[in-house]
Amino acid sequence: EDIWLGAGEMLLVRGTAQPNEALAVSLNGHVFGNFVIDEEGNFAVDIAPSSLDEGENAVDIAYSGKGDASQPIALTVHVDSAPPQLTLQSAVVDQHATEIAVRVSGEEMPCEVALLVDGQRVSSAETNGEDALTILSIGDVELSEQSAIEVEAIDRAGNRSAQSVAFERTAVAIEVEGQEARDVYGPETPLEIALEAEPDALLDVACGG
């Protein structure tokens, strides 16, 4: 069984076994200690963070003495004290953004990334563990200058890292021949342009860069 621990976390193993026997625990091939099973068959094995190495640790739990001759319990304990390395493809979004692309590196296993707006989780995804881009959807959330936008990454050991995303509204320049350019913000802003032309003339209106 694989167990993941973050920085400073103690390994806590709880279970049941043959009452009034003792358990022998080894850590990375060395004797760690003996633990007594109470009369109701419950046992508790605690290993402090200072006894565990960064990375992979092998923990074996078996009966000591005359107890049951069954196979020991083998645990693989992964200690990971480093938070995920989270990178945003762009740290700024505007009112037209539909997604945010992120990359997580420095992780052996996939971890979860999530988009939060004003403290509420909008979307989440699991990275593939290969430093590839992961896409987080903004969905139907309307972003504004007041929005608190954050992307977080949490690995299997519970380590967390986060990055803030800024919001900057994009201006659309309107150019009319003979008039000064004007900036219009947002799709709800009405645009009024007064022009003079020959009667019944066809007016071509172009929208674009």
Give the class from helix and strand content and strand pairing: mainly beta
> What's the gyration radius in Å?
30 Å
- Report on the biggest sheet: 5 strands, mixed
**What is the averaged pLDDT score?**
84
Write the layout of secondary structure elements.
Elements: E1 2-5, E2 11-16, E3 22-27, E4 30-36, E5 42-47, E6 55-64, E7 73-79, E8 85-88, E9 92-93, E10 99-105, E11 112-117, E12 120-126, E13 133-137, E14 149-154, E15 160-167, E16 171-174, E17 182-185
Parallel strand pairs: 1-7, 9-15
Antiparallel strand pairs: 2-5, 3-4, 3-6, 6-7, 8-10, 10-13, 11-12, 11-14, 14-15, 16-17
Describe, in short, the structure shown.
This protein is mainly β.
Notes on the protein architecture:
The protein is mostly beta strands. It is built from no helices and 17 strands. It has strands spanning 2-5, 11-16, 22-27, 30-36, 42-47, 55-64, 73-79, 85-88, 92-93, 99-105, 112-117, 120-126, 133-137, 149-154, 160-167, 171-174, 182-185. The protein has a 5-stranded mixed sheet, with no helix packed on it. The model has no long low-confidence stretch (mean pLDDT 84).
Keywords:
209 residues, mainly beta, five-stranded mixed sheet, 0% helix
